[in-house]
Design a protein that fits this description.
30% of the residues lie in helices and 22% in strands. With 166 residues, it is of the alpha+beta class. The chain has a single domain, classed as 60s Ribosomal Protein L30, Chain: A. It is globular, with a radius of gyration of 18 Å. The two termini are 25 Å apart.
């Protein structure tokens, strides 16, 4: 039986950001070996809080047992529409009819990365980490309220369509 978990994380989506290589008053030479030592210190507080919030919501919707095989993750990032939009445009966006190119809220890779890391932190969906994610799709929209809609589906191998093997 194919199992799908749906949930919603309320609030403005936050993109993963790279840690900055400088500490407070002194410059630090960051190499790959020393970077991990500073990652926790250098990541933004906003990003850490959002990651913890996503993990907490994910735990509330956890399956009885973590997924053993491959999974498909679908993410829909909804950003709050700007207040200076005309009423007609705001109504279209609130009704879900306005798909608009969003370029100022981070790219999809970084939005997805923060989400995948948070799901891995929750320790309830995956047995071997986010390497179990076989397919990942995401879209960015404007809407009346900011939120992220998540669907995680277990992939059953005998249900893979024949065209996927070509």
């Amino acid at each position: 039986m194919v199992q799908t978990i749906w949930f919603k994380v309320i609030g403005q989506p936050v993109a993963w950001t790279r840690p900055t290589p400088f500490l407070a008053a002194k410059r630090v030479v960051v190499t790959p070996a020393t970077l991990m030592k500073f990652v926790r210190v250098l990541t933004s507080k906003r990003m850490r809080l959002k990651r913890a919030e996503i993990a907490a919501v994910a735990k509330l919707h956890a399956p009885p047992e973590p997924f053993q095989g491959a999974v498909s993750v679908s993410l829909r990032f909804v950003f709050k529409m700007p207040t200076n939009w005309p009423v007609a445009k705001r109504k279209k966006a609130a009704d879900g009819w306005l798909f608009r190119s969003i370029t100022k809220h981070g790219d999809n890779d970084n939005l997805e990365k923060l989400f995948n890391d948070a799901l891995e932190d929750s320790l309830v969906f995956f047995t071997t980490g986010d390497q179990q994610i076989q397919t990942l799709s995401s879209t960015r929209w404007y809407g009346a309220e900011a939120a992220t809609y998540v669907a995680i589906t277990e992939i059953v191998e005998d249900r893979i369509p024949p065209w996927a093997w070509k």
